[in-house]
Amino acid sequence: xxxxxxxxxxxxxxxxxxxxxxxxxxxxxxxxxxxxxxxxxxxxxxxxxxxxxxxxxxxxxxxxxxxxxxxxxxxxxxxxxxxxxxxxxxxxxxxxxxxxxxxxxxxxxxxxxxxxxxxxxxxxxxxxxxxxxxxxxxxxxxxxxxxxxxxxxxxxxxxxxxxxxxxxxxxxxxxxxxxxxxxxxxxxxxxxxxxxxxxxxxxxxxxxxxxxxxxxxxxxxxxxxxxxxxxxxxxxxxxxxxxxxxxxxxxxxxxxxxxxxxxxxxxxxxxxxxxxxxxxxxxxxxxxxxxxxxxxxxxxxxxxxxxxxxxxxxxxxxxxxxxxxxxxxxxxxx
Length: 334
Description:
2 domains, three-stranded antiparallel β-sheet
């Protein structure tokens, strides 16, 4: 079957199942992996071999001073719980565990190769939930309530099945970007971060369009938009609001806004997203009756693995390895 035919078949297979999916929490694919240039993108390439203590992570606490260590299995349990709903399919949870482990291995290797004084000897600071309070049983018992035991059991089994597995390119862990919901096609990293990675290519993820909250809307009055853009250097919003935003949006092939002019100043899609509180930079904006309406598709930066896409593929019989190979190009998993 052709690739296009396979996607059509999958779309038919999962459409009826979409409505029973639980809504995503605010998945930290967009917060844990920042919208700005990846912090390690300009560092030396992570080494292909790691130190003897590489199966532990040294993590900076949210106080910015204390550093603790945590083993991989426990770290991944709490991380996956924070990144993806436990109600998702086991193969999707496994794919998430491997992507998360690979991402943090990449960060750890880069940090150890070129230490940052701000991390106080830790390997990393940004975790999906505050560290260490978010990486405790008490935190998750309160957050999950009666569903704690079942959720922890399911995610623990998924993590145990893939612990130690990483996504590699040229024998090194990749920058395993992931996000909640794509706009139907994943995005190139150079569009989002101005940094290219050969294994992060734009790939089809059309089933994301069936995800709950795929489409969202933000409406801002003219004064609200003016306030959101008040500190943009050189901006001029003195005229009629209807003429503030130019119809000159430059879009990527995946539909992300690369740039659009407002008040005589060109803003990137990321800047629009951050300033206007949009769920992604895949949007269109219109003006009517004193209000600006942003119609948004997807959730997150759009690069790498779509978490809802992984769920749909898992529901359709894909293994975790097949899911990862779909979203990450020319990689090895071992």
